[in-house]
Amino acid sequence: MKKLISLLLLLAMLLSLCGCEGETPEEPTDPQEVVVEEKIINIQMREADTLDPILTMRQSVRDALLTVYEPLFDIDETFALVPVLAQSYAFNENATVMTLKIKENVLWHNGQIFTVEDVIYTVNRIKENPQSSYYLNLASVDRVEKLNDYEVVFYLNEPDAFLVYSLYFPIMRVNADPQAMIGTGPYMYKETDGKTINLIKNNAWHKGEAVCDGVKILGMRTTAMAQEAFSAGKIHAVTKEMLDTENFAIKESNTRHLYPNGMFELMGFNCSEGIFTDALLRIAASNAINREKIAAIYGDATASGFPIMPGSSAFSPSYEMSEYNLDYAKEVVFSAGWTDVDGDGIMEKAIDNILTKMSFTLLVANTDPLRAAVADEIKANLEAAGFAVNIVLTDIETYNEKITSGEYDAFIGAIYYADPYDISGLLSSDGSVNFEGYSSPEMDFAVSELMSATGADKTSVAFSKLQSLYVAYQPAAGLVFRTTYVVTSPYVEGEVKPYPYSPYANIASWHIAGVGAETEEE
């Protein structure tokens, strides 16, 4: 039930990763040294901390390794399940036991048969390594056991009807050496010179045969090195993570392929003390926020007031909350008993016989200039509705301390979804990222119904109920879902279809036009 990375942990992780990857003790390789062959797809990743797909902490390494390894399920751009190594699954009535059937006749790159033992090995390895980026994916799993040669049983420590949406991690061969890179995917390891990993196509791939002859994965120490190589035509595809987006201009001849990345930006309210203990003021504030403008500030984002991605199979448009409605916000404020007594534009109300202004502080960490700009937009939005807003921009340590201690009125932050549909961590009274102090038996019951719902009909009803309660009580004000992208060169032909957790999801179908890139001789 707690497969969300908290905004506190997320910010800390981002700072840590930036710090590590900013260290460049050696000069970057000259991109002219890279020789690109015909029908070979060239992609990039950060210099690998490890080639272990379970333990690497670098997103670009995980992305690149998914050309070799495969998950049980992929999650497409609408957050729908795409079976890969799994064939089917079934839950018991209250979603505490799940039986999963794997595909038959799938071969590892070394010719051995893929088995349920491989699934069990991978799951246990993730659960035994809290440092794995996939650790939270299996938070609800107590243990896994073999049922027969093709079925494995997941026993859960709590109802989790959305467990299958967490099974997008790469499956490893039992006791395989990660350096050998033995997977089941469309491309298989051939050799490496320490800088470039050379892959060749897997002719025994269970989905057919890849179009191109191979893939080269080039390790890059810096964004400058990555950008230089891409601009020089030595790379066919690069993810946003590898680019300095403020200083790198994407050419018109290149194509940007957008996809959601599971990051949900929100404005959290202190529901335990202060003016936002009043649900009407939370509703008013949420309706006064211009999310389309905020999406424009973030650049690559989809406006959403509800913590489920618009366009996903679970989202109900009838409860959509991304519309800006200042007039309604003012009506709600007035209905809550607030009026502009002294004509200064700020609403007031007598509370315990004391005239109180409708004012609050908005806490923002200084680690992201975009969030600071968003705070300015929210301040302007809410002041138009009669609020007085004082932005407090602070360092990450102070930010964390104030939120965990409840010393704030509202904050701007983000949560990352390890499971695109498990929102229990945000909405439950004891949720792992419920920093707002919001507590409601009615919401808790609705969350438990959702997490126990099996079957499309039950799930749809449970989601609709939860969305209606969210709109009625507004425990937090959603802002946007961040999106990211893969950029491809003009040499890449065919449909490029990145998925939220796998940007090279359909790389096996990519076509490379002509030579594909310049060569050294040119």
Output the keywords.
single chain, 522 residues, alpha+beta, D-Maltodextrin-Binding Protein, domain 2, Dipeptide-binding Protein, domain 1, Dipeptide-binding Protein, domain 3, 3 domains, 8-stranded mixed beta sheet, 4-stranded mixed beta sheet, 12 helices, 25% strand, globular, disordered C terminus
3D architecture notes:
With 522 residues, the chain is α+β, with helices and mostly antiparallel strands. The protein folds into three domains: 34-68 and 185-254 and 490-522, D-Maltodextrin-Binding Protein, domain 2, CATH 3.40.190.10; 70-76 and 86-176, Dipeptide-binding Protein, Domain 1 (Dipeptide-binding Protein, domain 1); 260-483, Dipeptide-binding Protein, Domain 3 (Dipeptide-binding Protein, domain 3), CATH 3.10.105. 25% of the residues lie in helices and 25% in strands. It has twelve helices and 22 strands. The protein has helices at residues 7-21, 59-65, 116-127, 223-231, 279-288, 291-298, 326-335, 369-383, 396-405, 424-427, 441-452, 456-473, and strands at residues 4-5, 40-46, 73-75, 81-83, 86-91, 97-102, 141-148, 151-156, 187-192, 196-201, 214-220, 237-239, 255-269, 301-303, 348-351, 354-357, 359-365, 388-394, 410-417, 476-488, 492-493, 511-512. Strands 1, 12, 13, 14, 17, 18, 19 and 20 form an eight-stranded mixed beta sheet that branches. A four-stranded mixed beta sheet has the order 2-11-10-9. Strands 5-6-8-7 form a four-stranded antiparallel beta sheet, with helices on one face. Strand 9 (187-192) and strand 10 form a beta hairpin. Helix 5 (279-288) runs antiparallel to helix 7 (326-335), helix 6 runs antiparallel to helix 8 (369-383) and helix 11 (441-452) packs antiparallel against helix 12. The longest helix is centred in the C-terminal third of the chain and has 18 residues, at 456-473.
